[in-house]
Design brief:
alpha/beta; 3 domains; 23 strands; FAD/NAD(P)-binding domain
Length: 440
């Protein structure tokens, strides 16, 4: 065999698996048809958070008392900066892979059989095969001229009006960002609520904030038709209601990339539209692994990194199994929603409005919720606060390590920080947070 492992797809799952295997002295070939870093680095996670950061920075000053701000955003210049930043990251990942001894083949992969993959005129053989082909946005062919995540994140001008079809995390994140940048935003969601699947007590503060930003949210509403005339989109929704906008973003979900590279030749067992894997990230065919979005939900880059470690360990001969004891989730809304673990019999709640650092940031809408069992062991948490994405790992570690609420309560947190709210929520399990009087 030419290689110990051939990896198809160089997104977070693929390049991480390649690096981990190379670190264990395995010979690896990494195949990518587009750009190193995949969807996340080039067209999703990184550019979307850069746009959100831009919007948050401008809006932060706009809403701060005593500040008069007339900000003008040159999106063409910003896009140049964004792509420069992304290119530094992608080139950095590619350089890192090569420095570890990973062979990179650029082009479309075609699986010939269990051990052979063809890329253009080059054919390679490998003892193990890793499918890390990621996912793509679900597209609606009847909606012509609309944007998906790639197009909207490459926009050259901030739209005056924007209709977003889909009120999931992408719709909420980008809708909030564009509202802060000056767009009139309408979100249309088929389900009863936006962010379906997320606990309502975590979503409620975000909904109030979206309303304050002037975002119109239409729930239990379906888009019936989209027609573009003279650069204006005319949208008909449930009840024969008509809407107009100069831009439409469709965010109705993502689907795994399982077609167009010969996957069917392997005869893998599927789990619906996803590739079925076991606890070792191995498919129904021995020596063939699937990691990242293509292997199932949740479609998260950090899940992909985690699975890359598991698959690499097993390929290298070290037994490793998936343990999703606590998976952190983050929605980059305003304020950010972060949650991990699970609910249990106990819950302690501390309001963001009682946190001094948050008050100094002019941010008072949010909550800290810590869940614990009858023994006081932390089982999960939900945080709605500025930068909650940077705090949720503390609780994830607590769940993974079976720490108690008292362990968090006794941990010294720096002052003043938003993270102090976690300590006070833990203290609330005993009815004694320092800066908030409970009903106990």
């Amino acid at each position: 065999m030419d290689y110990d492992a051939a990896i198809i797809g160089a997104g977070p799952a693929g390049y991480a698996a390649a690096i981990r295997l190379a670190q264990m002295s395995k010979k690896v070939v990494l195949i990518e048809r587009d750009k190193i870093g995949g969807e996340c680095l080039n067209y999703g996670c990184i550019p979307s958070k850069a746009l959100i950061e831009l919007a948050n920075s401008i809006n932060y000053l706009k809403e701060m008392p005593g500040i008069t701000l007339d900000a003008r955003v040159d999106m063409k210049k910003w896009q140049e900066w964004k792509w420069g930043m992304i290119n530094r990251l992608t080139s950095g990942v590619e350089t890192l892979c090569k420095s570890q001894g990973v062979t990179i083949l650029k082009g479309s992969a075609e699986i010939m059989d269990r051990n052979r993959v063809k890329v253009g005129d080059t054919e390679v053989s490998a003892e193990n095969l890793v499918i890390a082909t990621g996912s793509s946005p679900v597209k609606l062919p009847s909606f012509e001229g609309v944007s998906y995540n790639r197009e909207i994140l490459d926009i050259q001008k901030i739209p005056e009006s924007l209709i977003i079809v889909g009120g999931g995390y992408i719709g909420v994140e980008l809708g909030t960002a564009f509202a802060k940048l000056g767009s009139k935003v309408t979100i249309v969601e088929m389900m009863e609520n936006i962010l379906p699947g997320v606990d309502r007590e975590l979503v409620n503060p975000v909904e109030r904030r979206m309303k304050a930003l002037g975002i119109q949210v239409l729930t239990s509403t379906k888009v019936e038709s989209v027609v573009k005339e003279k650069e204006i989109f005319h949208v008909t929704v449930s009840g024969n209601v008509s809407l107009e906008a100069d831009h439409i973003l469709v965010t109705v979900g993502r689907k795994p990339n399982t077609e167009g590279f010969g996957l069917e030749k392997l005869g893998l067992e599927m789990n619906g539209k996803f590739i079925k894997i076991d606890s070792r990230c191995e498919t129904s065919v021995k020596g063939v692994y699937a990691i990242g979005d293509v292997s199932g939900e949740p479609m998260l880059a950090h899940r992909a990194y985690y699975q890359a470690d598991i698959a690499a360990q097993n390929i290298a001969g070290h037994e490793a199994e998936i343990d999703y004891h606590a998976m952190p989730f983050v929605i980059y809304s305003d304020p950010e929603i972060s949650y991990t673990g699970k609910k249990d019999s106990g819950v302690s709640v501390f309001p963001l409005a009682a946190n001094g650092r948050a008050l100094g940031m002019n941010s008072t809408t949010g909550t800290y919720r810590i869940y614990y069992d009858s023994d006081g062991t932390v089982t999960g948490a939900g945080i709605v606060a500025p930068h909650s994405s940077e705090m949720i790992s503390e609780v994830t570690l607590s769940v993974e390590s079976s720490l108690s609420v008292n362990d968090i309560a006794l941990t010294i947190h720096p002052h003043p920080t938003v993270s102090e709210g976690l300590k006070e929520a833990a203290e609330g399990a005993f009815g004694k947070p320092l800066h908030f009087k409970t009903g106990r």
